[in-house]
Amino acid sequence: MAPDPLPPRLPVTDRTRHRRLREQGSLDRAELEAILDAGFVCHLGVVIDGRPLVVPTVYGRDERHLFLHGSVAGRSLAGGTPVCVTVTHVDGLVLARSVFEHGVNYRSAMIHGTARKVTDPEEKLTGLRLLTEHSAPGQWSYARRPNRRELAATTLLALSLEEASVKIRTGAPDDGDGPDAELGLWAGVLPLTAAWGAPMADPALPPNTPVPGHIARRAGTRHG
Ligand SMILES: Cc1cc2nc3c(=O)[nH]c(=O)nc-3n(C[C@H](O)[C@H](O)[C@H](O)COP(=O)(O)OP(=O)(O)OC[C@H]3O[C@@H](n4cnc5c(N)ncnc54)[C@H](O)[C@@H]3O)c2cc1C
């Protein structure tokens, strides 16, 4: 039987309670999912030998888990210890009249939990498929899939999406109605967008190897 879906409202726990800039917080799980789906790189924070380590890495997800992968030699992927994962999208620079009020328009998510090492072969393949398809939809069917040796060399972690938080900032600077509005300075937002470029063929390819449609179609589309 399929497990129940996670509640539509994000839980407020000791770890997820927003303490500062609370007005930017959201408890809407749909916003969390939208942030996760808009990116494919996260930062995995973990304490190893008493020291913090924050590792940029790619991810995928299903309705209940974030999947992270890497070499079995990766110390950050040991699993079984508390981790904190963040996903961040920068939408623009908020340029205020005062330096103090400068900021960033963003969407960000933080997931807290203890990641589990996936050992079941079927679950591992599913997780790796989700992870591959998250950043490169269509590649799981197109490229050669991992063989037994490659699977053995890969760690896959599953982190529950249960305990997560979201913060979003949009809009103009906050000092438009304060005393600094009298300064006569320009203020506003400088938007930032990322887009996929045209595919660049590997020089080692035989000439005229066609670019698959699922890759070609992404050129010029917006990322994030
Ligand atoms: C691109 C970017 C730039 C930023 N720049 C600054 C900056 O220069 N200075 C600054 O003070 N803040 C900045 N922030 C906001 C910052 O991420 C924190 O939200 C804020 O500083 C509060 O931090 P805190 O340690 O007091 O968190 P707390 O409010 O104590 O955090 C409690 C809990 O709230 C949740 N939470 C906190 N922050 C976030 C978040 N960003 N996304 C999702 N969940 C969150 C987490 O679950 C966390 O455990 C920036 C955010 C982004 C995305």
TrEMBL record:
<dbReference type="InterPro" id="IPR024747">
    <property type="entry name" value="Pyridox_Oxase-rel"/>
</dbReference>
<feature type="compositionally biased region" description="Basic residues">
    <location>
        <begin position="215"/>
        <end position="224"/>
    </location>
</feature>
<protein>
    <recommendedName>
        <fullName>Flavin-nucleotide-binding protein</fullName>
    </recommendedName>
</protein>
<feature type="region of interest" description="Disordered">
    <location>
        <begin position="203"/>
        <end position="224"/>
    </location>
</feature>
<dbReference type="Pfam" id="PF12900">
    <property type="entry name" value="Pyridox_ox_2"/>
</dbReference>
<dbReference type="InterPro" id="IPR012349">
    <property type="entry name" value="Split_barrel_FMN-bd"/>
</dbReference>
